[in-house]
Amino acid sequence: QVQLVQSGGGVVQPGGSLRLSCAASGFTFSNCAMNWVRQAPGKGLEWVAFIRNDGSTEFYVDSVKGRFIISRDNSKNTLNLQMNNLRAEDTAVYYCAKDRYATSSASDYWGQGTQVIVSS
Amino acid sequence: DIVMTQSPDSLAVSLGERATINCKSSHSVLNLSNNRNHLAWYQHKPGQPPKLLIYWASTRESGVPDRFSGSGSGTDFTLTISSLQAEDVAVYYCQQYIDIRSFGQGTKLEIK
């Protein structure tokens, strides 16, 4: 069965860095685009980053451009999100989400979520 | 960027009654090359990851009860729960995926 197991996260000071990972299994990882989505406390879902199935294309929400980097290793079935220069407003539960297809499709499976707290 | 706006922000419906949630996009999400609306609906319960309910605006995801249905085209969409069950209490989000991704602000559904 499809599994997305997240790791990383935690508490970090403003300006610090964190790396989130998402280990995929149960499907052909290299066939599917992937996303990171977050939910800040008391807020709705916010899409954060997208990467195409082959890693050739990345997109980011404006608020994280230049600070976050999404990447994937199709040989290890792993998705990553490198978060640099973190701000208080990045505090959220972060989810990895698998798209149904290589591009432009809904997200049919989600990781369990991981908490990121940016605080001094 | 495509902005998704849901209405209402919150909704209280009696058990067994119909619940209707609307979603409006700032630009059409109809892809003329495949004649599909790039619009999905998700259910999100506290402490759980979001769950895909509907994609291509009206296609029900496998395992989703048939009381959930999606309709609409272009810029205006609706999620309908035909007979509300207690387990349907959640926040519901629409999402467009024709221009990268964006979510509506969410609609909180409660029991009246």
Helix share bin of chain A: under 10%
Find the count of extended strands of chain A (DSSP E, 2+ residues): 11
Order of helices and strands of chain A: EEEEEEEEEEE
Give the distance, in angstroms, between the N- and C-terminal Cα atoms of chain B: 36 Å
Which two chains form the greatest contact, residue counts included?
A: A-B, 20 and 24 residues
Cα gyration radius of chain B (Å): 13 Å
> Secondary-structure element sequence of chain B?
EEEEEEEEEEEEE
Helix content of chain B: under 10%
Mean pLDDT of chain B: 97
* Radius of gyration of chain A (Å): 13 Å
Q: What features would you describe in this structure?
A:
The complex is a heterodimer of chains A (120) and B (112). With 120 residues, chain A is mainly beta. In chain A, 0% of the residues lie in helices and 51% in strands. Chain A is built from no helices and eleven strands. In chain A, strands 2, 4, 5, 6, 9, 10 and 11 form a seven-stranded mixed beta sheet that branches. Chain A has a four-stranded antiparallel beta sheet with strand order 1-3-8-7, with no helix packed on it. In chain A, strand 4 and strand 5 form a beta hairpin. The radius of gyration of chain A is 13 Å and the shape is globular. The termini of chain A are far apart. The mean pLDDT of chain A is 97. By secondary structure, chain B is mainly β. Chain B contains no helices and 13 strands. In chain B, the strands form three sheets. In chain B, strands 2, 6, 7, 8, 11, 12 and 13 form a seven-stranded mixed beta sheet that branches. In chain B, strands 1-3-10-9 form a four-stranded antiparallel beta sheet, with no helix packed on it. In chain B, strand 4 and strand 5 form a beta hairpin. Chain B is globular. Chain B starts with a strand and ends with a strand. The model of chain B has no long low-confidence stretch (mean pLDDT 97). At the A-B interface, strand 5 and strand 10 of A face strand 6, strand 7, strand 11 and strand 12 of B.
